[in-house]
User: Fold these one by one.
Assistant:
Number 1:
Amino acid sequence: MEPVAVVYHEGISGYDFGPGHPFRSDRFPKFMSLLETHGFLNDPRVSVLEPEPAGDELLELIHPESYIREVENRSGHYIPLSGDTPLSPSIVEAARLIVGGSVLAGELVATGAAEIGFGVGGGLHHAGRRYGGGFCVFNDVAVCAQSLIERHGLERVLILDSDVHAGNGTMDIFYEDSRILFVSVHQNPLTIYPGTGFIEQIGEGKGAGFTVNVPLPPGAGDRCMALFLEEVFKPLACEFKPQAIIRNGGTDPHFMDGLGSLILTFQGLWTIGKAASQAAEEAGCGVVDLCCSGYNPATVAEGWLSLLTGAMGEENPSVELAPPPISSEAVLKETERIIGDVKRHLREYWEFR
Ligand SMILES: [Zn+2]
């Protein structure tokens, strides 16, 4: 096992959208107590660090000042950012802490202080430079990546977004940037929020070929994910030679999650964490791992732990609460077709060896 830094601040509990909203903040302390239950907090190889809230200077690596002011102004008057994303002063304060946490996780990995920097609450990938929504106020994934480039001199950062929803905000932000290879595997956006993240969206200008969208059909499970990891993610990581890998996305691809229609198991989530850390090991770099999503309170923390233990190469202690369904042959065939299509769209940029 590699040295792991878990970046956590109790203050992120302010990132709570209220009763009836699928994003409640009890997920954060629940995850920390699950780590404790399984002995990870007493493990000498695991440290827990507290981040500082991100100031404007850090946010401005990605977000223009006008957007930050708009968020602050709205939050003071409790005016939502979008239909699904309420704002309040405590939500914005917690959002700044989450960004600070993801940046710290990145810093620890970039300086070699940790092999795995696990940012609890990170992965707010639906926020673009000038917009928020989809429960995301500031894009901590993008701020983390940009900070690795601008403040630590990295030239190649790979982002693996394995959330059930496509990472539209992160995609938009880096669409013309060849320093960030953005790979998003998600449920077909014709069938789920945010309605974008299609195979044809491969980046533009200098960034052409550096955005990779792999939209899986509803009903895709562990075997489909394995196919993506083997045929798309691993070869790309091998060719790109990242100096850091940021993996984001929580439990929402799990079969018991209410917001998505993918049917991954905890073991399937584990394989994603494992693939990210294996690719990092081959490239000689570390992994920043960011988890916030998951909309079944009974599985969210266990799913994050699956991703983390996968990255650590530790046995996964999470136990399914129901027998997992299995992808149909038709869904597997469709996934093979999609992966072939992804490679065809990118063949002038990558060899996929
Ligand atoms: Zn999601």
Note: The longest strand covers residues 180-187.
Number 2:
Amino acid sequence: MTSNTRVVVIGAGLAGVRLARRLGELGTPVTLVGDEEHRPYNRVLLAEVLAGRYSPDVIALPAPAELTRGRVTGIDREVRTVHLADGSEIAYDTLVLATGSNSVLPPLRGLFTPGHVLPEGVHAFRTMDDCLGLSKAVRPGVKAVVIGGGLLGVSAARALAQRGAQVVLAQQGERLMERQLDPSASKLVQRHLKDLGVEIHTECRVRDVRCVGGAVRSVEMHDGYALDADLVVLACGVHPRAGLAQTAGLEVRKGIVVDDELRTSDPHIRAIGDCAQHDGTVYGLATPALEQAEVLAELLSGRRTDARYTGTRALTRLTLAGHDSPFDLAAFGETEARPGDDVVQLADATRGTYRKVVVRDDRLVGGVLVGELGTVGALARAWEGAEPLPDDGPLLHLLTNDGGS
Ligand SMILES: Cc1cc2nc3c(=O)[nH]c(=O)nc-3n(C[C@H](O)[C@H](O)[C@H](O)COP(=O)(O)OP(=O)(O)OC[C@H]3O[C@@H](n4cnc5c(N)ncnc54)[C@H](O)[C@@H]3O)c2cc1C
């Protein structure tokens, strides 16, 4: 790969924009194609826009000057061109897919209308358009039901409650944010949301959404109980947007399969971010997307041909700004212990803080911090480095070595 070949990047999200900017800085010409109408933005901060804390301008990404707006509808690998919805074509030497993910729509009959548009009042929560649509619909006293109690559902419920909506969160699993948190930390998140006025139903499967005249009126639970709803937010997870790759015949499993050079099964096509599957993992998180973009920029610019992506140990951080005080949490690695692991935990029910680390064979394998994040930097470094822990003190030092209480 030399630095003057035509690099075309599809997708102006976190990964695509970072790659295009880095390539620009390194003197490699690049064409970035994105299908969203808005200026590229930081998707991670959408909940802050919905909560009314930030205006859309504040979360705009420093984007490269040149952005082609349009939807790529096909890839011709033979002649190396991409086709856009407006009929135009762009030739490439190297194509990068940074197409992100789509929201998962739960299989509820009421969602499937003729023409495949969601009923009025039902919103996904993935794009700036979703966020602006929700923002327009939310008013004090509006009855909102959030379906899904993962990171996305928790963020949406908190934001809507802050806008004065009466929010019910329906979570199919036993507890909130099961993927990231252990039961004690989940309980604190639950308490925080309740303090904001959110009603939470766990182990609660939604059976259908009921509409009248094309607009949602209620959400029906598996036991037949119906919740009145003016607004419904679907926060049931995401799946990689890999349709283009699939149609073009690239290897796709959960996501578009890539190697350590972010190369797909076609050597002229790379993939990064939420749409990519590296070493069996589709991350669906911002840090891996940005790290993959950085590695690919080194490779495509020719600055470091030995650059490799070997995986990200992703730390999840969430700030839920409450009425009085912010509520912070961070989680990484395995937050639940296996038999034989050492566990250190400190909990303060009055202050609503909780800290726990899991240690296996002298190595930190995971942890969760709620409300008190003073040690997060040191812990994350110990976890990322995977170095043996010093044996010169009690493990409790891991939780207090910032001098925090
Ligand atoms: C509300 C919300 C909160 C989140 N919070 C966190 C968080 O706290 N921490 C965290 O780590 N992650 C969080 N995430 C996930 C994070 O936003 C993603 O992991 C990240 O955006 C992935 O970047 P990406 O560039 O791969 O995809 P995206 O940012 O989704 O960008 C992909 C872009 O490609 C465009 N595109 C797709 N197909 C085409 C096509 N055919 N033609 C042209 N353009 C196309 C899409 O429209 C989109 O603009 C959150 C996500 C959401 C929605």
Note: Residues 286-301 form the longest helix (16 residues).
